[in-house]
Amino acid sequence: MIRWNEFTKGIIKENPVLILLLGLCPLLAVSATAINSLGMGIAVLFVLVGSNLVVSLFRKFIPDGVRIPVFIIIISTFVTVTDYLMAAYYPPLHKSLGVFVPLIVVNCIILGRAEVFAYRNNIFYSLLDALGMGLGFTLVITIIGMIRELLGSGTVFGLGNFVSYPALIMILPPGGFITIGFLIGVLNWYRQKYK
């Protein structure tokens, strides 16, 4: 029987951002606009899926004593591919995300899923886990980017003029903390109310 909860847990129940509080550095740094947020989310999703699949595929051949360095090499390979693809096909987004694309290598979500899940499970469940966690991260970072851009610039994905007097603080670093704190509060309220 297929355990679909391996996929769904990453979206809400064990969301890497709102529940586990992982990957906050790139999230707070690049989520000032919705397009940057979506780009970072897709990049993390690609690296997470690729690295989980390779780690799970070779898990029986990776000696326990060197597993972390091997994981880093696998993750670095996917990050390099992502960085080069983004630089070749989406230069403005690549320039906007800057150093945070190469820093995906040390993202706690990626290394944590390789260590905790992919190294201990088969390819299918590792894929489900990576897709769920990656989509959960992408969904949250995109929502945060949309909220910050809307309140800080008055636009969403660079379109429209929805707010007459935007609050500049929302596109600055404190805006990221305010937004993520608000979303965590809403999620906690919802979980308590419908427990």
What does this structure look like?
The protein is mostly helical and 195 residues long. The chain has one domain (5-193). The chain has 8 helices and no strands. The chain has helices spanning 5-8, 24-30, 34-57, 67-89, 91-97, 108-116, 123-153, 173-193. Helix 4 crosses helix 5 (91-97). The radius of gyration is 17 Å and the shape is globular. The chain starts with a helix and ends with a helix.
Give the termini distance in whole angstroms.
27 Å
Number of DSSP strand runs:
0
**Main β-sheet, in a few words?**
none
Give the overall silhouette: globular
Content-based structural category: mainly alpha
Quaternary structure type = single chain
The number of helical segments is 8
What are the low-pLDDT stretches, counting only 5+ consecutive residues below 50?
Answer: none
Mean of pLDDT: 92
What is the H/E order? HHHHHHHH
Helix content: 55-70%
The value of Rg in angstroms is 17 Å
How many distinct folded domains?
Answer: 1
Secondary-structure map with pairings?
Elements: H1 5-8, H2 24-30, H3 34-57, H4 67-89, H5 91-97, H6 108-116, H7 123-153, H8 173-193
Helix pairs in contact: 3-4, 3-6, 3-7, 4-5, 4-6, 7-8
Features:
195 residues; mainly alpha; 65% helix; globular
